[in-house]
Input
Amino acid sequence: MVNKEIKLLESQIEKLASPGFDFDAWKEYSLIILTRIFGKHDSKIKQLKNIEFEFNSWSLRDASGNESYEEGSKKLAKEVMQAAIDELKIYGLPDIDNNAGQEANEILTIILDEFKGSQLKEFHKIIKSKNSLTEKKRRVKELIEELGDFASIDIISNILTSPKVSSFIIEKK
Output
């Protein structure tokens, strides 16, 4: 399975030398690939994000030679992609830390923390039952109504202010 990822990264390296090269499009596509393979917190992603293809100032560009800067950016981008390939060849596919799973667990924990022991047991019985989804929803709704008028406000407030969930929200922005 690692061979598909390696071929994809190698094709990205080849694109660096293609005529009519668009660095921004290449960079975004490469970031998507690297994120999928290594996870969103991998250092190669941060390195690639920091590579700029063009100077921000026209005077700097005119004074220092635009082509050499662009070639340097391409070379650095190639090294990042080659490092990814080498890592895959040596270590194989990484076990990606699934942050979405962590955030879902955090949300579930916050919700279930509002239940009393007997309500939690009842919730487990409802979920494990062979009742229809409609019936399970009806019974869970009744259970939530037992928590009181402000429980849903407390739950939502706790979810939105949870460090794990709020960091996820900030990253999506």
Residues 57-64 have pLDDT under 50 and may be disordered. The chain has ten helices and no strands. The radius of gyration is 25 Å.
